[in-house]
Every structure is written in structure tokens, then in C-alpha cells.
Amino acid sequence: MDSSIGKLEPFLLMAKSAKGAAAAKLVQDATAAPGVYVFSELLELPSIAELKNSETHKQFYSLLELFAYGTYPEYKQKKDSLPALNDAQTTKLKHLSLVSSSMQSRILPYAPLLSSLDLPTVHALEQLIIDAIYSELLRGKLDQNQQQFQVEYTVGRDVPNDALASLLASLEDWSATTSSLLSTLDAKLNALSAQSAAAARDAEDHENLLNTSLREIAEKREKSQTQQRGSDRPPRGILKENAGFGRRGGDDDMDVDESSTSIGGGAKGKNRKASQEISSKSRTKRNRT
């Protein structure tokens, strides 16, 4: 829409010095010019406003008002009191009618548009909508299955002075609704923030409790293992007795060895004595002989 205002600038400059028929011709040119879709500034110029009081040219002022605020169906109702439209003006007014319809509803069925815009076929309607989209007046989706146009975006149009009070009331209602919605959202955000903080504290408390429990379990396990190692080791008194028993066992072994030695020695002494007796007997026999 900014580009449309920029394209209106040359007409605003020329209109400052235009009078009568020249001003009427300027209206015809502006309403047919490509890309010009806003006209309120042109209507407010004194040279253009004078057309309203001219019996010869007041119809051109009415035509400019129609392009600023009206629609193609309105033109059909008043066409006898308005100048005839050329093809460029007709297409532009139909584009502006699409914008007005899109401002009132986000779903535009094809059937009412075909009738109100005097279009012979669905193809002609869709082509008109596509042209409006390329002119950056609308954005949306053509739904051939449902035979409708789904509006996503539309530009605004000029607002007549007598509609300003209603527009202001609508804006005030919108502002009140928005403020209430924002207050509700703020309250919900604050509640969510409090819940999040509480959840974070609970998580921290849980983690601390878990760590404390793990430390206690580790300490109990270490204490139990220490006690187990202590119970597996024999008392010191038993260790000493076992050590003494080992030494006594050595003495007994030595006694046994000594006894064995004594017994062995006694046997050897008896053997020697028997040998001596045999030898003595042998010598006695030889002497007798």
C-alpha cells in the first residue's frame, strides 16, 4: 500500500493547480492508473473538493468517492449517475471490491463473487483474484474443490469520515480485548514461572536427598566390610598358643629322635657283646685241641 501512495503523488501535485474539467480529467486518470488504490488524499484537495459543487463535474467527484470507499456492486446501482468506466477502471474497481469482501470474511465462496462482479466463468474469477494477488492487494489460496478463496492477507482501504466513529469503537473494543488477553497471558506466564521454580527446587531437594542416601549407604557398606575383616582375624591369645604348640611339638620330635637313637645304640651294644662271647668260645675250643 505504500507503493500505491507513492504512485498517487504525481496526481496530488497536478491536482493542486487543476480546475474544473482538468480536475475531472485528473480523476479519470487516477482511477485508471495502474497501482493506485488509495484516493482519500486526492479527495481532500480543495481543487478536487470543488467538483462536488459543480453541476457539470460533480459526477467525477462521486466516482472518486466510489473508488475510495465503494465497490463494483454499488457502481452498478448508481451507474446512471456516474461516468462510464473503461476496462482499466472496471478491473480496478473489481479488485477493490475483492479487498472489501476479504476485509469482511476470510472465506469467499465463488458463487456470490461471480454474481456481484459480473464474471461469466470461474476461470475469469480466479484470474481476477490472481491479478489482485500479483498487485499485492491480497494473499490467499484458491480452493477449486470447495469453490472458494481462502484469504490470508488483505490491504486496507480508505475510510470515509462518517465511518471513523464506528472504526474507533471497533479499535477500542479490540484494544480492550487485547489488554484482557495480555493480562490473562501474563497471569498464566507468572503461574508457569512459579511452577517451574517450584519444580526446580523439588528437583534440587530430591538430588540432595539422593546424594545423602548414597553417602550413608557407602559409609554403612565400608563399616560393614571393616567389621567383617576384623571378625575373620583370630584373637591374639590364640595366635600365641598356636605358636607355643609348634615349639613343643619340636621338642617331642627331638625326644623321639633321642629315644630312637638310644634304642639304636643299645642294640649295637648287645650285638658287640654277643660277638665278643662267640669269639671267646672259639678261642677256648682251639686251646683245648
Please describe what this structure looks like.
The chain is mainly alpha-helical and 289 residues long. It folds into two domains: 2-159, no CATH class; 160-249. It has helices at residues 2-15, 21-32, 40-44, 46-49, 58-69, 72-78, 87-104, 110-116, 122-134, 164-232, 236-288, and strands spanning 107-109, 138-143, 148-154. It has a three-stranded antiparallel beta sheet with strand order 1-3-2. A hairpin with a 4-residue loop joins β2 (138-143) and β3. α1 (2-15) runs antiparallel to α2 (21-32), α2 (21-32) packs parallel to α5 (58-69) and α7 (87-104) packs across α9.
Helix-strand layout with pairing:
Layout: H1 2-15, H2 21-32, H3 40-44, H4 46-49, H5 58-69, H6 72-78, H7 87-104, E1 107-109, H8 110-116, H9 122-134, E2 138-143, E3 148-154, H10 164-232, H11 236-288
Antiparallel strand pairs: 1-3, 2-3
